[in-house]
Amino acid sequence: MDLSDFSMLDLFSLEVETQGEVLNDRLNALEQFSYRSFNLSDRLYREVIGTHMRPFEEGVSSFPRMVRDLARQLKKRVKLEIIGKLTMVDRDILRKLEAPLTQILRNSIDHGIEFPDERVAKGKPPEGTIHLEATHRFGMLSITISDDGKGIILDNLRESIVTKGLVTEEMSQQLNEAELMEFIFLPNFSTANQVTEISGRGVGLNIAKTMVQEVGVIFRLFLNLDRA
Description:
The chain has helices at about 5-50, 55-60, 65-75, 90-110, 115-120, 155-165, 170-175, 175-180, 205-215; strands spanning about 55, 80-85, 90, 130-135, 140-145, 150-155, 220, 225. The chain is an alpha/beta fold.
């Protein structure tokens, strides 16, 4: 091997090194472009979603006053605690939630929360509490409503379904608690003795169930049971 061979080898090595540097520069440029593209896409996605998403509190801002006014009308003391006010909700779903939530809250105040003297006699504070919570579970909006009222009186529920001719007396005695509770979700079903402007129309729980089916919301309604 003569000196010219070393020169050619040096030139080849230099060429390979130069091409490697060019390739690295192009790879770095490609990575930067990909990073910028991802950030741009993510920002655009968030902006589009942001125009359709609103905090839960915007859709329920009128509820605390509604609860106070209705409680005062019924001579009861009730406070509403809203949890998850900043939970983001699709604005169309938020709008659809207003009617069913309003009806359920009205039913809770009218049927669930006792009068102050009744609550005190039971060892409860005179003021009843309703909890309304919004959160995300498994990628879906979850709405939970609960109160510390007297709840569903099972004997009255059993009597109502017999009176309405839904089941016979004998059959009603064979129904367990879970089976009895299914009846309160039927259209036009109510345990109220009379229909008033506030409740008793038998639409509250039924429209809640319908809403769940239509918009795909996880709806959790905690109903107290009075077995006395």
